[in-house]
Amino acid sequence: MTHVSTTSGLVHALDGLANTWHSAGLLNENDKDRTKLAQTMRGMIDAFYDDIPAPVVIDKSRGWPIAQIQGAMAQVLSHQPKIIATVRSVPDCAASFVRIAKPEDLDEFMASGQLMDHLKAAYISLQNGYNYAPENFLIVEYEDLIADPKSQLQRIHTFLELPDFVYDFDNIDGSTVAEDDEQLHGTADMHKVAPVLKKQHAQDPRDVLKHHYTAFCQPEFWLERPRTTPELTDLDLQLAASTTGNFAEGWRIAQELEAKEPTNDRAAYNRGWYLLRQGQIQKGYALMDRGRKAGVFGNKRPDVPTPLWDGKSKGIVMLYLEGGLGDQIHQVRYAKNIADKGCTVIVACTGQLASIFVGVAGVSAVIQHEAAFGIYHDFVVQGMSAVVPLGMELEDLSGAPYIAKPTVIKGHKKRIGLRWSGNKSFEQDHHKLFPAELMFHAVKGADAEFVSLQRDADLEFKPGWVKDSKLDTWEDTRAAIAGCDLVISSCTSVAHLAGAMGVETWLISPVLPYFLWAAEGDKTPYYDSMTIYRQEVFGEWQAPFDKIKGDLL
Fold first, then answer.
1. 3-state SS, residue 86
2. Is position 366 within any domain?
3. 20 to 30 A from 116, CA-CA: which of 124, 379, 402, 520?
4. Burial group, residue 169, by CB count within 10 angstroms (0-12, 13-18, 19+)
């Protein structure tokens, strides 16, 4: 007899045991070969299934494919683990969830909760585990199981070294493996077992998922020729047009998508960028805010019980800064606007930025993000969307400095700070990365001394004539910037801080600029001291640096 569990917590208990031993130091000199840990894990497994008389137990959990778990179980069992992975194309799985839940609002259902993210993450975890040790796996494809269940069960018996058994696929009793799906996942009958093994529908997942289909086209790594492949959509065409600077075509597609797919939040986000380009700040930010549901704008709502601020109510407002460090430096400006509405403003930010935000106008207190739940407040505002409840339009934006510039001793010679790259992967994804030597060639020869504002990455490109700066903390960086007469930077947090301090800043932007620089021209309403040098042709960076050289020399 074989026992098959419902979704089990055994693997998580074993992982917790290993972590406890590790934190207690028991995996060092006391058990450096992990022999005692393996024996204890085996004892836990035996105790967990002590009341199950079956000689073979199949424990169900998505945690078993994790590489570290597989490695541990090889020692616990004294042989490699055997993992049966039942698979199906991810769009089919997602469409099945939609059919069962029958949501009134498809977009809200796809964006809310963790179900869909969990689905995609489960297949990524499975692929990583399979790549670690494919010999440990038996892949059972949904389509094959439906088409020929007898042969698939024979494969499982062979894999587990079990004797043959005659199954009745027209009289299946699923009561022993029933799960409380509504309690676990928020949707009932997700794992309901029908009495007859047969395909339940023939509906194309494209018709069910609509514009969400492509988001679920993950690699079907178990197939030599995957059936599910991403399709080229209007959004892809729009991105291609925008990335290469064809904004007329991008705007045309944006308007078409508005008519064809008005509920598409990703399309709304893109349309918002174009409205910002046109100077329609309030409408633009409101549309970009919809990008949160699609995971392309800001962060998820902070874990606090308070409502979003409506722009009118008085009380204690938490301005929850989000995104990267540069984003947060930009967003803290709105503390003053909120305070001007008669509110007390608490700023929640990344801890390393806290000290430079303390003196910003309108800020009554600064906390780290992690402390947000424990600080009393009446309302919360997500920083990237602060413009929306504030009701701000283009003329309401201020480019005046709002972060204090410390007094530093300067020499008689003009000092120029250089920052040639930020986060490498982020800059690559947004096409902001340019050859560092272009910057150095453009500025070399100017009657000035040069200091580096670069830290962490790409320090090896710094020429000897560029002096080092102390940049260990953001207070150090603020002091280094304060000592500069001019900062030349790619689109990084350094550029934001320099602009926020009122230091003259020259920013190098790709053809498709960050949303703050979306409006045409070489100036921005957010920082009076900033000049934007724009890439003119996608993939070619010489033009903005020729302009910098001309303006500098």
1. strand
2. yes
3. 379
4. middle
CA distance 385 to 396: 15
Q: One-letter amino acid identity for 208?
A: V
Query: Nearest CA to 358 among 332, 379, 391, 397?
Result: 332
Give the count of alpha carbons within 13 A of 138, CB side only.
17
CB-CB neighbours of 382 under 10 Å: 25
8 Å CB contact between 515 and 440: no
**3-state secondary structure at position 197:** coil
- For the chain, the 3-state helix, strand and coil shares in percent, each to the nearest 5, are 45, 15, 40
Residue 365, domain extent: 316-396
Within 447-537, strands assigned E span 449-452, 466-467, 486-490, 505-509, 530-534
Residue with tokens 């029958």: 102
- Quick one: tokens of 106? 């498809």
Statement to judge: residues 47 and 194 lie in one domain:
yes
Please tell me the pTM assigned to this model: 0.75
Residues 531 and 497 occupy one common structural domain: yes
| Helical H segments across 30-148, by residue range | 35-48, 67-77, 90-101, 106-111, 115-132, 142-147
Q: Could you identify the residue written with the tokens 């949160």?
A: 292
In a domain, 91, yes or no: yes
Rounded to whole angstroms, the Cα distance separating 1 from 48 reads 18
Residue 409 CB partners (closer than 8 Å, separation 6+): 483
The residue among 342, 363, 396 that closes a domain is: 396
Angle separating helix axes 10-23 and 35-48, nearest 10 degrees: 150
Q: Would you say residue 179 has pLDDT above 70?
A: no
pLDDT in tens, 237-268: 999 999 999 999 999 999 999 999 999 999 99
Question: Which pLDDT belongs to residue 429?
Answer: 59
Establish if 539 belongs to a structural domain. yes
Residues 6+ apart with CB under 8 A from 423: 324, 457
CA nearest 193: which of 169, 214, 221, 217?
169
What pLDDT shows up at residue 487? 98
Instruction: Report the alpha-carbon distance of residue 527 to residue 213 in Å, rounded.
Output: 40
CA-CA-CA-CA torsion for 258, 260, 265, 267, nearest 10 degrees? -60
Alpha carbon distances (Å) from 101 to 112, 115, 182, 207: 13, 11, 10, 16
In which band, very low, low, confident or very high, does the pLDDT at 20 lie, cut at 50, 70 and 90?
confident
Could you give the 3-state DSSP secondary structure of residue 206?
A: helix
CB-based contact 80:74 (threshold 8 Å) = yes
Find the angle CA(103)-CA(104)-CA(108) to the nearest 5 degrees. 75
Q: What is the CATH number of the domain that holds 449?
A: 3.40.50.2000
Neighbours of 46 (CB within 10 A): 9
**What CA–CA distance (Å, rounded) separates 98 from 96?**
5
Residue with tokens 């969307």: 385
Measured CA to CA, the distance from residue 14 to residue 69 in angstroms comes to 9
For residue 487, the cross-strand partners are: 417, 505
